[in-house]
Amino acid sequence: TVGYFTKWGDGAYDFNPIADLTVPEIYEILRYLGAPAHIIEKAPSAGLYQGQTDEAELGVTYSDIAAYVRGGELSESMRRRIAGMEERTAHKRRMPRCYPD
């Protein structure tokens, strides 16, 4: 939704069975599968530098993003913030245009 991935990098795939899941939903599946707590509790990070976290970089939490995606309760300012991020990164979720020869 917010495009926090590298275009044609970690966002490139041929098959993505969890694409429509939110981060909290993925954590729920991990708990169900019995994943170790240290994996579930570790703050998501792109690993760009020591102490970096996705949520600090984004300025929103994954719970806020999940609420936005699922139509949950969210302040209007947060809704606008996430909508802006979604709009600015839409190009990352679209295939490139192809022109006929």
TrEMBL record:
GO annotations of cellular component type: cytoplasm
EC numbers: 6.3.1.5
Stretches of the chain forming a coiled coil according to its record: none
Molecular function terms from GO: ATP binding; glutaminase activity; NAD+ synthase (glutamine-hydrolyzing) activity; NAD+ synthase activity
Enzyme class: ligase
Record keyword NAD present: yes
Pathway membership, UniProt: Cofactor biosynthesis; NAD(+) biosynthesis
InterPro entries (UniProt xref): NAD/GMP_synthase, NAD_synthase, Rossmann-like_a/b/a_fold
Segments forming domain NAD/GMP synthase: 2-96
BP GO annotations: NAD+ biosynthetic process
Keywords, comma-separated and alphabetical: ATP-binding, Ligase, NAD, Nucleotide-binding
Catalysis: reaction(s): deamido-NAD(+) + NH4(+) + ATP = AMP + diphosphate + NAD(+) + H(+)
UniProt similarity note: Belongs to the NAD synthetase family.
Protein name: NH(3)-dependent NAD(+) synthetase
The species this protein was found in: Candidatus Limadaptatus stercorigallinarum
Protein encoded by which gene: nadE
